[in-house]
Design goal:
By secondary structure, this protein is an alpha+beta fold. The chain is built from seven helices and 13 strands.
């Protein structure tokens, strides 16, 4: 996976305490700010549409001050339930739920004041678990390209020259979670289209898409093969299908989203209506967090 997009799954409570003391609390604020962001990133692809998504941690702090600390309890409760639910989606058994954290914070204060630290320790541990699960799923990108060998021109299979061509090209090409049949060439052939990301977390990366292959893009791993976690991306944002017919080729794009798909910075696709687009078309997803070229 792209290690620039890898979440931190090695947070430690002792670092939070030690470096927090050494930096007069500054490290702790940065620690919680980044952990809050990672929780959102790990949860968003698999959580339900109406499930709680934490605001920026600076807002969490401000709301806690305004409500005299009440929002902190609410935040722990919601995050606890959210992490437990998302953990199940990742195949993890997480015992703690929202009420567990509240119990430690409220009742645990009587135990020499260590209750809130126990709650934070549990939150850090469970955050590490879902971040690790997210990282193991290729950082939110899971492109499964199932190739039908019958759709390949037999002329390309007469010798093994494609293997050398593929090896040579792969030396200079970055792939993001593309899984293909090792027996079939995947680059350098005209029946292969390309989704070239030019903006977003996967900017600079490419995904190959074969003729008649449809790829769905969105936040939900239940529906999508390419998973993007930004808030302007819907659970099932759009589908892209590539068709190659000898001397001609085209892409067929369908928008299913809330914020839409913009073509070449000007035309917004009609929701639910498939549109035929040529190679070289630029697609902007949502409010502009992700862009790609149909190559």
């Amino acid at each position: 996976m792209n290690y620039e997009n890898r979440l931190n799954d090695q947070r430690r409570m002792w670092k939070y305490l030690l470096f927090g003391i050494l930096t007069l609390g500054i490290y702790q604020l940065v620690f919680l700010y980044k952990m809050n962001n990672d929780i959102n990133t790990a949860c968003n692809p698999v959580q339900d549409e109406d499930e709680f998504t934490s605001p920026n941690y600076i807002i969490v702090i401000l709301l806690s001050i305004i409500t005299l600390g009440i929002y902190t309890f609410f935040w722990y409760y919601k995050q606890g339930n959210r992490i437990k639910h998302v953990g199940e989606k990742y195949g993890l058994q997480i015992d703690e739920k929202g009420s567990t954290y509240l119990l430690w914070i409220l009742v645990g204060v009587l135990l020499f004041g260590i209750g809130p630290y126990v709650a934070l320790y549990l939150l850090i541990s469970n955050t590490n678990r879902i971040c690790k699960a997210y990282n193991n799923s290729a950082g939110g990108v899971n492109v499964n390209v199932n190739i039908n060998i019958d759709s390949i021109d037999p002329g390309y299979m007469k010798d093994d020259s494609w293997k050398k061509e593929l090896d040579d090209k792969n030396k200079d090409t970055v792939k993001i979670g593309v899984k293909v049949n090792d027996e079939i060439p995947t680059t350098g052939l005209s029946p292969v289209g390309t989704l070239r990301f030019t903006k977003g977390n996967f900017s600079g990366n490419e995904v190959d898409i074969r003729s008649q292959q449809e790829i769905i893009i969105g936040r939900s791993s239940q529906y999508c093969q390419i998973i993007l976690t930004e808030q302007d991306i819907s659970r099932k944002h759009c589908s892209i299908k590539y068709e190659y017919q000898g001397s001609t080729s085209a892409y067929y794009v369908t928008d299913y989203s809330t914020f839409g798909v913009i073509v070449n910075d000007s035309q917004k696709l009609e929701k639910g209506v498939t549109q035929r687009l040529p190679k070289g078309t630029k697609l902007t997803l949502g409010q502009g967090s992700n862009e790609m070229i149909l190559g």
